[in-house]
């Protein structure tokens, strides 16, 4: 699929089958080298190329651009799917929203998730409809919902300090047991008590009928998908992209003015022989349904209950701007300890270890660590973009100051 998409892309993008870079590239002096053709690397490359007219080389170890945002047309189902899981764009940052307008038309889309709980479909996050359905109530307004929640909620004399306490303080034990506890255990293979409070704080609890998963003012999907955005960002004479190249195989041969590294921070410092940071991964079981309109009632259906060995099912055909198709395809999502590093595991061990790696990163000359893996932090797409834009500002201002001195 990458080859297909690369043919419509910049002449300066190359899909390499061999490890390594052509001699001509190794002989060049690159103003900027970027490790990773995901969102963070793409923003850095685009900024240096267009704002400062600098020559940028990107190396990407996977066989395609786009990092975890990569999407493509499933050839059998004729449905655009995301290789690494559903990606919904949402942001409250004006700067990010304005920035992404340059690279795509955007179709407004407010993501809604349904959960199968006690054999019934209910909205997730929890709202008035969720509790009315699950507990046979007839709440009609926010005041009633607040009162109901107040009776359920567990009160602590301290700030909730882990994922369990956050959920219990927001929804109480009954909803925790139905929606949060079994899902979180499956997702992380850990007791929610062992996970940082930010895990369950990610999703809101609503006191109205709002069925949206996110609350941000800007929620939309790129009309032609995410990969098309990357093609557009890289379509510049100052940018060269090489896929199937692992940075560590070519690093010693490269001549880079400055390097932006978006891979895992612990891999960068592997020579130190320190312990590794832990990540949670996912597997996606593809199921194709010939001549079937839809498999399920929504794009994402969560299955929090313990007896399912999966967490959610994603059916991309529900999204806007899909081509017409008589078929559908679904992806059953399971969490796993092995595979691509997707989710940093936010516990004390990893937080402490990351700080040690970060101290090393701060001392690394002419290298900036950027993105979700290098920061060992759960960045949404908008966080990744903002982080890269801010690092670009910071580094270029510093470079300007040094030149003036
Ligand atoms: P990545 O996309 O991981 O890119 C890093 C790139 O570096 C990768 O392509 C990797 O192959 C490459 N690389 C690593 N090491 C090397 C090396 N040694 N040499 C060369 N290349 C290397 N965000 C949202 O806003 N909404 C969502 O709905 C959403 N859903 C998500 C669902 C899942 C399952 C996951 C995992 C993430 C989701 N995200 C979502 C987050 C989003 O994917 C990230 O914010 C974004 O991809 C971060 O971009 P990045 O460039 O920092 O990292
Ligand atoms: N979560 C849950 N039940 C759900 C949905 C989410 O317990 O039905 C918890 C779970 O711990 C999960 C976290 O909330 O890891 C964040 O959910 P989100 O949907 O944001 O996770 P992602 O889409 O990033 O996998």
UniProtKB/TrEMBL annotation:
* GO terms assigned for molecular function: flavin adenine dinucleotide binding; UDP-galactopyranose mutase activity
The prosthetic group or cofactor this protein requires is: FAD
Residue ranges of domain UDP-galactopyranose mutase C-terminal in the record = 179-378
Q: Which domain of life is it from?
A: Eukaryota
Supply the alphabetized keyword list.
FAD, Flavoprotein, Isomerase
Which InterPro entries does the record match to this protein? UDP-GALP_mutase (IPR004379), UDP-GalPyranose_mutase_C (IPR015899)
NCBIfam families from the entry?
UDP-GALP_mutase (TIGR00031)
Query: Per the similarity annotation, which family is this?
Result: Belongs to the UDP-galactopyranose/dTDP-fucopyranose mutase family.
UniProt-recorded name of the protein: UDP-galactopyranose mutase
């Amino acid at each position: 699929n990458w080859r297909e998409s690369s043919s419509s892309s910049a002449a300066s993008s190359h899909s390499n089958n061999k490890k390594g870079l052509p001699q001509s590239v190794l002989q060049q002096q690159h103003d900027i080298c970027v490790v990773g053709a995901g969102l963070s690397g793409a923003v850095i490359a685009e900024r240096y190329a267009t704002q400062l007219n600098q020559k940028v080389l990107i190396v990407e170890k996977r066989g395609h651009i786009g990092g975890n945002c990569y999407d493509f047309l499933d050839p059998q189902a004729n449905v655009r799917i995301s290789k690494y899981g559903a990606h919904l764009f949402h942001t409250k940052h004006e700067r990010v929203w304005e920035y992404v307008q340059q690279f795509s038309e955007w179709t407004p889309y407010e993501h809604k998730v349904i959960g199968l709980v006690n054999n019934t479909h209910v909205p997730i996050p929890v709202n008035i409809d969720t509790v009315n359905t699950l507990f046979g109530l007839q709440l009609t307004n926010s005041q009633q919902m607040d009162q109901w929640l107040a009776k359920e909620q567990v009160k602590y004399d301290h700030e909730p300090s882990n994922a369990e306490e956050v959920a219990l303080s927001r929804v109480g034990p009954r909803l925790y047991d139905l929606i949060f506890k079994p899902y979180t255990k499956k997702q992380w293979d850990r007791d929610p008590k062992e996970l940082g409070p930010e895990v369950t704080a990610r999703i809101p609890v609503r006191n109205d009928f709002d069925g949206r998963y996110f609350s941000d003012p800007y929620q939309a999907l790129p009309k032609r998908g995410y990969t098309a955005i990357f093609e557009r960002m890289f379509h510049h004479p100052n940018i060269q992209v090489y896929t199937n190249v692992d940075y560590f195989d070519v690093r010693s041969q490269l001549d880079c003015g400055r390097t932006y590294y978006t891979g895992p921070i612990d891999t960068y410092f592997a020579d130190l022989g320190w312990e590794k940071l832990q990540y949670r991964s996912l597997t996606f079981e593809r199921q194709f349904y010939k001549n079937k309109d839809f498999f399920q009632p929504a794009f994402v259906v969560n299955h929090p209950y313990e007896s399912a060995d999966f967490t959610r099912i994603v059916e991309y055909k529900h999204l806007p701007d899909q081509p017409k198709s008589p078929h559908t395809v679904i992806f059953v999502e399971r969490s796993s300890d092995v595979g691509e590093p997707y989710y940093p595991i936010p516990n004390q061990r990893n937080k402490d270890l990351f700080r040690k790696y970060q101290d090393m990163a701060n001392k690394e000359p002419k290298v900036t660590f950027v993105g979700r893996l290098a920061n060992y932090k759960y960045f949404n797409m908008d966080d990744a973009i903002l982080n890269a834009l801010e690092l670009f500002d910071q580094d270029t201002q510093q470079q300007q100051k040094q030149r003036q001195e």
